[in-house]
Write a structure and sequence with these properties.
The chain is α/β, with parallel strands linked by helices. The chain is built from 6 helices and 14 strands. The N and C termini lie close together (about 10 Å). Strand 12 and strand 13 form a beta hairpin. It has a single domain, classed as Class I glutamine amidotransferase (GATase) domain (Rossmann fold, 3-Layer(aba) Sandwich). The chain is globular.
């Protein structure tokens, strides 16, 4: 499908930097809209689940909008491609220490708080530029340099229980999972919309999947 003809829906559940994602997609000619109603989300060709903030609050907001079962159906049954960004990725895990509530469970993974020893060198939240070491081949990273850096800001991170779901890892005193991919589901701990040219290229690759 031509990327210009796709409808990309950025899901608005009240906890995301939605407009920066939309602006970046528009820059690469992505037909992006922000929505939280069933009709718009169901009619999308691809979905983006952004997010910044508290895990438990995000779960409550999604359920209050009656989107929890809708997203499970669209992602797991109808297999719509979905990209989770930061908190959006974490919501794809089974559960989080941040509020001790269950996530979607699309990935066999858990969300834990950073536990660094050298607190002078490694501040929490992990904020700034860092690279991603790929653990498997993915068209999402097509023509992105191996040394490319992406922008991170987070206090919690993913621990995956299945190595074949891990797309990439990042080091911040220790190695943590920074990208997951399984079938139609992709999660990124970093913010491609804030990652300049490489982030733009990654989003373009997502449109072309």
């Amino acid at each position: 499908m031509n990327q210009n003809n796709q409808k990309i829906v950025i899901i608005n559940y009240g906890m995301g930097n939605l407009n920066s994602v939309k602006r970046k997609l528009r820059k690469i000619n992505g037909n992006a809209v922000i929505a939280n109603d069933y009709h718009s989300i169901e009619s999308a060709d691809k979905l983006i689940l952004p997010g910044v903030g508290h895990f438990a609050m995000a779960v409550n907001n999604i359920k209050a909008l009656a989107l929890w079962d809708v997203l499970n159906e669209l992602v797991l049954v109808k297999k719509k491609p979905i990209l989770g960004i930061c908190l959006g990725m974490q919501l794809m895990a089974k559960q989080s220490e941040e509020g001790n509530v269950e996530g979607f469970g699309w990935f066999d993974a858990d969300v834990v708080r950073f536990k660094v020893n050298n607190t002078l060198q490694y501040k929490v939240p992990h904020m700034g530029w860092n690279n991603v070491s790929l653990r498997k081949q993915s068209d999402l990273f097509n023509k992105i340099p191996l040394a490319a850096e992406f922008y991170f800001v987070h206090s919690f991170h993913i621990q995956s229980n299945k190595s074949d779901e891990i797309l990439g890892t990042t080091n911040y005193e220790y190695e943590f999972v920074s990208a997951l991919e399984k079938e139609n589901i992709i999660g990124l701990q970093f913010h491609p919309e804030k990652s300049h040219d490489v982030g733009e290229k990654l989003l373009l690759n997502f449109l072309q999947l």
